[in-house]
Amino acid sequence: MADTEQSAVTVAVLGTGTMGEAVLAAVLAGGQPAERTLATARRPQRAAELTERHGVRVVTVREAAAADVVVLGVKPQQLDAVAAEVAGAVREGALLVSLLAGVTTARLAAAFPGAKVVRTVVNTPAVVGAGVTVLAAGAGAGEAELARTEELLAATGTVLRLPEGQLDAATGVSGSGPAFVFAVADALAEGGVGAGLPRAVALQLAAATVLGAGRLMVETGTHPALLREQVTSPAGTTAAGLRELDAQGMRAALVSAVMAAAKRSAELAG
Ligand SMILES: NC(=O)C1=CN([C@@H]2O[C@H](COP(=O)(O)OP(=O)(O)OC[C@H]3O[C@@H](n4cnc5c(N)ncnc54)[C@H](O)[C@@H]3O)[C@@H](O)[C@H]2O)C=CC1
Ligand SMILES: O=C(O)[C@@H]1CCC=N1
């Protein structure tokens, strides 16, 4: 989208919680002017916080729904109530960017008649511009809506298109994935404490290790199995640790965790 075109567009985040606020910040970082950007809040204190942090106007849900681009950031379980509240307020041809896990473009299009729907899965590292977002267009949307959404979300991190049928699986890997990685980081630190490190040092080492391992994998494009081999000396410390991970089923547990999250995403379709 050209700068002049972008500046004429009103973008509203309807449901500005953890993910809605992350996307709001990314949209602003991408060049959308704050004076044409709206948010919703259910408590006055939250409204003041959003205005102070981002310089945006907090409006009613119906006013947000009437924007050119509506980013929907409520929980899947809150969709029906919001759709009822904004019935008739969404403009014909408006772009509806959904952040909702599991909810299909078909259901969103039925809930917001006339809107062009793009379904996305963002993840919380978007807060620091290191997220990965996947997206798919609904039946009434196409290249223009996908490109506009990619541009709006560019500051979240990496953005890639997938067939909608793969979004539940992607939710398991990248949507919920940060929680699984945080569980690993927490356990790494706990192990460090068990082995005698002060907790603050153990946490610092665990966080830096997760960051470094991720960067090494992304920046070299090397398969993680090979990177793991590069750490593992014959009869060394890593081989001893990896034997424990195998014996205690860490790999199987993570595979099951991702598949359970993907299954739950599909269930949230409603
Ligand atoms: N948190 C995460 O890591 C991810 C979340 N998502 C999806 O993002 C969406 C938002 O999740 P979170 O930000 O974690 O939840 P959240 O609970 O922090 O945010 C939801 C927001 O919607 C607002 N809301 C609820 N009902 C409303 C209504 N009727 N009118 C106006 N506002 C209303 C709430 O006040 C809250 O601010 C969910 O659909 C979730 O599936 C997707 C990928 C990752
Ligand atoms: O737990 C959830 O349902 C949301 C969707 C993916 C990450 N958080």
UniProtKB/TrEMBL annotation:
<dbReference type="GO" id="GO:0004735">
    <property type="term" value="F:pyrroline-5-carboxylate reductase activity"/>
</dbReference>
<dbReference type="InterPro" id="IPR029036">
    <property type="entry name" value="P5CR_dimer"/>
</dbReference>
<dbReference type="InterPro" id="IPR000304">
    <property type="entry name" value="Pyrroline-COOH_reductase"/>
</dbReference>
<protein>
    <recommendedName>
        <fullName>Pyrroline-5-carboxylate reductase</fullName>
        <ecNumber>1.5.1.2</ecNumber>
    </recommendedName>
</protein>
<feature type="domain" description="Pyrroline-5-carboxylate reductase catalytic N-terminal">
    <location>
        <begin position="10"/>
        <end position="102"/>
    </location>
</feature>
<dbReference type="Pfam" id="PF14748">
    <property type="entry name" value="P5CR_dimer"/>
</dbReference>
<dbReference type="InterPro" id="IPR036291">
    <property type="entry name" value="NAD(P)-bd_dom_sf"/>
</dbReference>
<dbReference type="InterPro" id="IPR028939">
    <property type="entry name" value="P5C_Rdtase_cat_N"/>
</dbReference>
<comment type="similarity">
    <text>Belongs to the pyrroline-5-carboxylate reductase family.</text>
</comment>
<keyword id="KW-0963">Cytoplasm</keyword>
<keyword id="KW-0028">Amino-acid biosynthesis</keyword>
<dbReference type="GO" id="GO:0005737">
    <property type="term" value="C:cytoplasm"/>
</dbReference>
<keyword id="KW-0641">Proline biosynthesis</keyword>
<dbReference type="InterPro" id="IPR053790">
    <property type="entry name" value="P5CR-like_CS"/>
</dbReference>
<dbReference type="GO" id="GO:0055129">
    <property type="term" value="P:L-proline biosynthetic process"/>
</dbReference>
<feature type="binding site">
    <location>
        <begin position="14"/>
        <end position="19"/>
    </location>
    <ligand>
        <name>NADP(+)</name>
    </ligand>
</feature>
<feature type="domain" description="Pyrroline-5-carboxylate reductase dimerisation">
    <location>
        <begin position="164"/>
        <end position="268"/>
    </location>
</feature>
<dbReference type="Pfam" id="PF03807">
    <property type="entry name" value="F420_oxidored"/>
</dbReference>
<comment type="pathway">
    <text>Amino-acid biosynthesis; L-proline biosynthesis; L-proline from L-glutamate 5-semialdehyde: step 1/1.</text>
</comment>
<comment type="function">
    <text>Catalyzes the reduction of 1-pyrroline-5-carboxylate (PCA) to L-proline.</text>
</comment>
<dbReference type="InterPro" id="IPR008927">
    <property type="entry name" value="6-PGluconate_DH-like_C_sf"/>
</dbReference>
<keyword id="KW-0521">NADP</keyword>
<keyword id="KW-0560">Oxidoreductase</keyword>
